[in-house]
Amino acid sequence: MRAEPFFAELIVESFLSGKRIDSFLVKHFRNYSPYRVQRIVRAGEVRINDVVADNDSRVYLNQRVTVRLIEPPDRLLPPTPGPLHILYEDSWLMVVVKPAGQIAHPAGDFGTNTLANVVQHHLDQQTQWKGLLRPGIVHRLDRLTSGAMVIAKEHLSHGLMTEAFMKRKVQKTYLALVIGVIEPDAGTLNKPIGESLDPESCLMTTHANAVNARSAITHFKVLERFTEHTLVEAKPVTGRHHQIRVHFADIGHPVVDDEFYGPYGWIKKDPDGNPIARPADCRQPTADRRDTVFPGDDDEITRDIPPELLLVGRHALHAHRLEFRHPITWEPLAFEAPLTDDIANVIENLRKP
């Protein structure tokens, strides 16, 4: 039981100047809905420069807002205790390693046990009340892709990191094991990517008939060649859905054990001849636009690939490195997520004569 309501004192930032008081507070307390905040305001528990606010009040730069949160948050992500590999953490953000098989944020049939749920449990240990901090997912990895992800802990870093990704100020480096031997030591894949024309598919394609095709650029460097495979380092300049997987499939070198994409843009089918991606997986954003993820990112297990043909057991793609400036301190940061055992073990086996 809570001994006392949580009290906070906030100074209005320039980018929130002119906002209604409920909108301002929802930005700061991201697990509170506007309705719950409005109830607290009506109860007289919010003051602007020591004057009791009402729900029509607006805040302006450098004003002091005080609030007593007399009610708990009503948008709380269900916290899930679980392992969490943290590469970095401060008051504003975290960099974590997402394991293969875990979706980043609740969506579709995945309502709990996501990375966001695990991070919510972690954040709840840092605050007086559960839900005072909410993990902000600013970019995404497919469910079966492992590797480094940035998660914001509060609204300002969330907004600034989201902007950094949108403006391509974050450098992302992936490791991918692909089928076949790539001859050039390095190169650039520069082919627009759009949605597949197949109405039953939620997948992407480089084909000329792609829907809503947008420019897509991926730089790559060969790290190691094997008899029938290549280990590459891929640096996407743009951030299209399934970009690395689609680009390498397009040149005839799909990612090992990719459950969707075959050589030269062929989209795999199930035994009945239907696209493996289900219509229910189509790109429907979640209600929270700032935490938008896409159920279509949550790839099906590789069960449709014959077991004797599997090497890794999931597509062999790993988000290896992130480089960016800290959104608050502007310090240059770089983080590397170690290559996962499943891909590393396959590489070691491929090296054997």
Describe the 3D structure.
It is a single chain. Strands 5, 6, 7, 8, 9, 10, 14, 15, 16 and 17 form a 10-stranded mixed β-sheet that branches. Residues 278-303 have low confidence and may be disordered. The chain is elongated and about 75 Å long. Among the domains are: 6-69, RNA-binding S4 domain (Structural Genomics Hypothetical 15.5 Kd Protein In mrcA-pckA Intergenic Region, Chain A); 169-336 and 346-351, Pseudouridine synthase (2-Layer Sandwich), CATH 3.30.2350.10. By secondary structure, the protein is of the alpha+beta class. The longest helix is centred in the middle third of the chain and has 12 residues, at 155-166. It has 6 helices and 17 strands.
Entry summary:
The chain has about 350 residues and is α+β, with helices and mostly antiparallel strands. It has helices at about 20-30, 35-40, 115-125, 155-165, 245-250, 340-350, and strands at about 5-10, 45-50, 50, 65-70, 85-90, 95-100, 135, 145-150, 170-180, 185-190, 195, 205, 210-215, 215-225, 230-235, 315-325, 330-335.
